[in-house]
């Protein structure tokens, strides 16, 4: 059952204006972006608030996806069913996987994979033998990554293929590359705790998403060797899949709050999570300011 907006939850947003959706998983990730938005109205759908307004010269709708894959997919589809969305921009934090990156760096991957869609393999005398394989990726013990079932544009209804990587919008990536050298990222928290290095922005490469918070050095090393992922998170590939199914372009900006178990004695997300969120938001703001009003064509939804 779909829950409708609460009475008086809508305050005059135009339902027909095509907008860029600005999404984050939780409140700390979008505070700077929401504060910078000239909010003209709001609407509550399924207990999620959509904020309508103008940001960096664009008509936008801001919302939280909620934590993890199911929430992210559900919230994205609910949004696209109700609002004419031109593109999706996701801003948030992630765990660092690439050993060449550090906390505070901002990653803007060219593609995202659902790396924890898996087959748990039977153990045999010869080792773990998966009953099916839809990718060439090796396993982590008994766990073997699989492609996600997606529909096929132009094919008969309900035709399915397995797909692992979901491509970010090429126009958006090009603009992100252009602004990367123009953004100064924060190095110190408001409490005076500073990173040992100057953060940087990396555009391109891979990201992966799954429904687990990763804080394990051995698993992190396997993720790097297997997928060459710069970052891992818990939402982006779910948003990317829904975006593809609806023919809506997307791009995700993820700043590293921790190293997913690859640092020394403790996870640093509690220390640098707010800083990482602010760094991601800073790059998103620069991206939106550089984004031409005509960057995205009218919706190509199937």
What features would you describe in this structure?
- This protein is α/β, with parallel strands linked by helices and 302 residues long.
- It has a single domain (19-118, 133-290), classed as 3-Layer(aba) Sandwich (Rossmann fold), CATH 3.40.50.
- It has 6 helices and 18 strands.
- The protein has helices spanning 27-36, 68-82, 170-179, 217-227, 236-245, 269-290, and strands at 19-24, 38-45, 48-55, 58-64, 85-96, 106-108, 111-114, 118-120, 122-124, 127-129, 143-145, 148-151, 160-163, 165-167, 201-203, 206-209, 229-233, 250-258.
- The strands form 4 sheets. Strands 1, 2, 3, 4, 5, 6, 7, 14, 15, 16, 17 and 18 form a 12-stranded mixed sheet that branches. A two-stranded antiparallel ribbon has the order 8-11. It has a two-stranded antiparallel sheet with strand order 9-10.
- Helix 2 packs parallel to helix 5 (236-245).
- The longest helix has 22 residues, at 269-290.
- Residues 19-289 form the Nucleoside phosphorylase domain.
- GO terms for molecular function: catalytic activity.
- Pfam families: PNP_UDP_1.
Characterize this entry briefly:
By secondary structure, the protein is α/β, with parallel strands linked by helices. The longest helix has 22 residues. The protein starts with 18 loop residues before the first strand and ends in a 12-residue tail after the last helix.
């Amino acid at each position: 059952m779909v829950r409708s907006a609460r009475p008086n939850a809508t305050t005059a947003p135009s339902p027909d204006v095509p907008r860029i959706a600005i999404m984050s998983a939780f409140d700390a990730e979008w505070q700077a972006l929401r504060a910078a938005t000239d909010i003209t109205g709001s609407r509550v759908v399924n207990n999620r608030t959509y904020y309508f307004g103008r940001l960096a010269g664009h008509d936008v709708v801001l919302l939280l996806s909620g934590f993890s894959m199911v929430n992210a997919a559900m919230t994205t589809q609910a949004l696209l069913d109700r609002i004419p969305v031109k593109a999706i921009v996701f801003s948030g934090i992630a765990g660092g996987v690439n050993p060449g990156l550090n906390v505070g760096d901002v990653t803007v991957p060219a593609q995202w994979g659902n790396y924890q869609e898996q087959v748990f393999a039977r153990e045999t005398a010869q080792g773990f033998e998966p009953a099916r394989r839809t990718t060439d990726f090796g396993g982590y013990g008994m766990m073997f990554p699989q492609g996600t079932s997606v529909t096929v544009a132009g094919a008969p209804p309900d035709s399915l293929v397995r797909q692992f990587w979901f491509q970010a919008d090429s126009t958006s990536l090009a603009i992100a590359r252009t602004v990367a050298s123009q953004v100064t990222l924060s190095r110190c928290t408001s409490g005076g705790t500073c990173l040992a290095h100057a953060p940087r922005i990396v555009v391109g490469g891979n990201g992966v998403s799954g429904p687990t918070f990763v804080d394990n050095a051995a698993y992190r090393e396997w993720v790097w060797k297997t997928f060459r992922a710069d970052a891992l998170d818990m939402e982006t590939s779910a948003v990317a899949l829904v975006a593809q199914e609806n023919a809506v372009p997307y791009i995700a900006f993820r700043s590293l709050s921790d190293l997913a178990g690859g640092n020394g004695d403790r996870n640093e997300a509690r220390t640098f999570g707010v800083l990482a969120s602010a760094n991601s938001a800073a790059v998103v703001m620069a991206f939106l300011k550089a984004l031409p009003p005509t960057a995205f064509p009218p919706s190509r939804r199937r």
